[in-house]
C-alpha cells in the first residue's frame, strides 16, 4: 500500500479482530481520551508487541467517533538505548520497498540522491515500510505544490523535480537509491532481508552520542559536556 497510514500497524483493527476471536488480546482501551482535532472524547488503544530482530515496542492508536480523526504512533516506554543508531539501505528493486521501518520521533530520515531530509521531531514515531515513508513524503510535497508554483516558481520547479523522482522511487521504477534513518536514541530500525547473516544492502552503525545529541533527546550530560556542546559551532 502506498499510504503511510495503511502501512502502520493498525492496533484498532488488531484489537477488534482479537476481541471477535474471544481471546486475550493484551490491548488496553482508554475511553475518554481528548481528541486534539475537535476537542471531543475518543478512544485510545495501547498494546505491547515484539518486532522480530528488534525489540519490544508500545503501539498506540487513537480514534474519535465524533470527527473521525485517527492517529497511530510508536513509543518505547521512555527507553533510550546506550548508543545511537544509523541504518542505511540501498534499494535495488521493488521488493526492498516492503522492508519494514520503525522511525522514532527523534530520528531523521535522509534521501541523499534528492538532498532531502525529514527532520527529527517533525513526525511522531511509527511503523511503516520504505514505500510508506516515500509515499508520505510525496503526498506532503504535493499538498501545497500549486501555491508554491504560483508564489515561488523557482522553488516550485525544484520541488516538482523531487516529486517526479519520488513518484518513480515509491513504485520501484527509479532504482537504485539510498535511504537512511539516523536516530540518537537508538530506537529506529530498517528490516534486514538476511537474518543471521550480513545484508549487503543494509549498513548498520551504532555510535556514541555527542553532548548535543544527548540534549536533543532529553538526556543531561555533564556540566562540562553541556558547555562544550554550546560552544561547538558545528552543533555536534
From TrEMBL:
MF-aspect GO terms: zinc ion binding
Keyword Metal-binding attributed: yes
InterPro entries on file: Znf_ZPR1, ZPR1, ZPR1_A/B_dom, ZPR1_jr_dom, ZPR1_Znf1/2
Any one GO CC term of the record: nucleus
Keywords: Metal-binding, Zinc, Zinc-finger
Domain of life: Eukaryota
Domain Zinc finger ZPR1-type: 33-192
Pfam families: jr-ZPR1, Zn_ribbon_ZPR1
Family of the protein in this entry: Belongs to the ZPR1 family.
Name this polypeptide is given: Zinc finger ZPR1-type domain-containing protein
Amino acid at each position: 500500500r502506498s499510504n503511510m497510514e495503511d502501512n502502520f500497524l493498525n492496533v484498532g483493527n488488531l484489537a477488534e479482530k482479537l476481541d471477535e476471536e474471544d481471546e486475550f488480546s493484551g490491548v488496553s482501551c482508554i475511553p475518554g481520551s481528548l481528541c486534539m482535532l475537535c476537542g471531543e472524547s475518543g478512544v485510545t488503544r495501547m498494546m505491547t508487541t515484539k518486532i522480530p530482530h528488534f525489540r519490544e515496542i508500545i503501539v498506540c492508536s487513537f480514534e474519535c467517533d465524533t470527527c473521525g480523526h485517527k492517529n497511530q504512533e510508536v513509543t518505547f516506554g521512555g527507553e533510550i538505548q546506550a548508543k545511537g543508531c544509523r541504518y542505511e539501505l540501498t534499494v535495488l528493486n521493488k521488493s526492498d520497498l516492503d522492508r519494514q521501518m520503525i522511525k522514532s520521533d527523534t530520528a531523521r530520515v535522509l534521501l541523499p540522491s534528492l538532498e532531502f531530509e525529514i527532520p527529527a521531531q517533525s513526525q511522531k514515531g511509527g511503523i511503516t515500510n520504505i514505500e510508506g515513508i516515500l509515499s508520505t513524503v510525496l503526498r506532503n510535497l504535493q499538498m501545497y505544490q500549486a501555491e508554491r508554483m504560483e508564489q515561488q516558481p523557482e522553488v516550485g520547479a525544484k520541488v516538482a523535480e523531487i516529486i517526479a523522482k519520488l513518484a518513480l522511487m515509491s513504485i520501484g521504477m527509479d532504482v537504485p537509491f539510498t535511504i537512511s534513518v539516523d536516530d540518537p536514541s537508538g530506537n529506529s530500525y530498517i528490516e534486514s532481508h538476511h537474518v543471521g547473516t550480513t545484508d549487503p544492502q543494509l549498513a548498520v552503525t551504532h555510535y556514541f552520542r555527542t553532548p548535543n545529541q544527548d540534549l536533543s533527546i532529553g538526556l543531561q550530560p555533564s556540566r562540562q559536556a553541556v558547555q562544550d556542546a554550546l560552544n561547538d559551532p558545528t552543533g555536534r
